[in-house]
């Protein structure tokens, strides 16, 4: 592989194929939250609750669209948020492989890398699920694995055994974080208006 063949996978391209019928369900849930909040809480408390939910959802959408993975001669650059990302040289990468598992609605697949320290990361924008189908997922994964195989010595490779986080999809982790944030927002609103 030459440096001219650097690959970049962007979140905005991946999420273009989203299943909007399922995502619209989230909009309905926000409307229900707003209706229940305004009927049960004061206007200020309901405003904070709904505003916090919308702010969290908006930041999540912006973050998803800005994430990217770049693969090249220097290694793998992972950018999952607003920064430039971090480049991990090939000498730190011990394994690149597709992880398949079952999610809440259906199965999901994600391309993961394991580093020399044993840490495993899912590569942003290289994931496939029923919510975000990607017809090019397998071909993209093969290209990244090809870069890894061409850039590393086989004697330095090992396969990750996996931990609790390794077995969770980014969508499941996002739901857990979302529930945690929601609980904190509700608790703050309720405590502030006692």
UniProtKB/TrEMBL annotation:
Domain Low molecular weight protein antigen 6 PH as annotated: residue spans: 66-130
Protein name, UniProt field: Low molecular weight protein antigen 6 PH domain-containing protein
Cross-referenced InterPro entries: CFP-6_PH
Bilayer-crossing regions: 20-39, 45-62, 173-192
> What's the domain of life for this entry?
Bacteria
Swiss-Prot/TrEMBL keywords: Membrane, Transmembrane, Transmembrane helix
